[in-house]
Design brief:
This protein has a single domain, classed as Four Helix Bundle (Hemerythrin (Met), subunit A) (Up-down Bundle), CATH 1.20.120.1940. Helix content is 45%, strand content 13%. The protein has eight helices and four strands, in the order E-H-H-H-E-H-H-E-H-H-E-H.
Length: 244
């Protein structure tokens, strides 16, 4: 399924993975499991039903705005069914990875590959990136990420996550309000469903960084100033010249 519901490019044109990211909250997560243990195929699996449900919610809001309550009602009904399908399939997805607690289940409905801004391409890295793109096109995510690791590129995977129970509650509320012809309130309930979507970021490849050269130079300067003799013009004891 082509995902164009929320279009904001986060990554780079070098990688061909579809992008779609815009939500209320950015959730920083712990790094994904080690290279030997991580299951990238499962981590990057997305719920088509969950994605369709959110699209239905947005369609319902547009219908309300355009004064078409019948279409809004149909879209809400479709969202209810799609969320039900997504809930039944929730066990097949990797939800929140930041250790957050709560009774709700989170399912990924969209995702994007993002690489570090300081990435510099050379011939060797280019070969690995090309192979990674080929694997992504074939749906071989595990093999693709391994190629990016060989290229020593910092890679994050950003996902849109939907809370199933909260989204279901908001949609059911909207359904009831539409039946009561309370369209303004129904729109607010649907907006709450959209606002409940969060962004979850997982480090797929995290390359260790060398020490900052500027920090090293600053440290050398500080050491030099400490070892420098006191000025002959100073009438104060030498110990008072130490820079804090």
């Amino acid at each position: 399924m082509k995902r164009t519901l929320i279009a904001a490019l986060l990554g780079t044109s070098m990688l061909v993975v579809p992008a779609a990211v815009l939500a209320k909250e950015v959730v920083k997560t712990e790094q994904a499991a080690s290279a030997e243990q991580a299951n990238y195929d499962k981590l990057m699996k997305l719920s088509d039903d969950g994605f369709t449900a959110l699209r239905d919610v947005r369609s319902a809001r547009v219908a309300i705005f355009n004064g078409n309550p019948d279409q809004a009602s149909k879209s809400v009904e479709a969202a209810t069914k799609d969320i039900g399908k997504a809930s039944a399939d929730a066990k097949n997805y990797v939800g929140r990875t930041n250790g957050s607690k709560g009774s709700d289940e989170w399912i990924p409905i969209d995702g994007n590959i993002d690489i570090a801004d300081n990435f510099v391409l050379d011939a060797k890295k280019g070969e690995h990136v090309t192979k990674a793109n080929e694997h992504f096109k074939k749906g071989e995510k595990q093999k693709a990420v391994e190629q990016l690791k060989l290229a020593e590129i910092d890679v994050n995977y950003t996902r849109l996550l939907m809370p199933l129970k909260a989204t279901t509650d908001h949609v059911e509320t909207a359904k009831k309000l539409i039946s009561e012809k309370k369209y303004y309130e129904a729109n607010l309930a649907l907006k709450a469903a959209e606002d409940g979507i969060v962004i979850d970021s997982v480090a797929l490849v995290d390359i260790p960084k060398p020490a900052d050269a500027k920090s090293a130079d600053a440290s050398k300067s500080a050491d030099a100033s400490k070892s420098a003799p006191a000025s002959s013009a100073s009438a104060k004891p030498e110990t008072s010249t130490t820079t804090k």
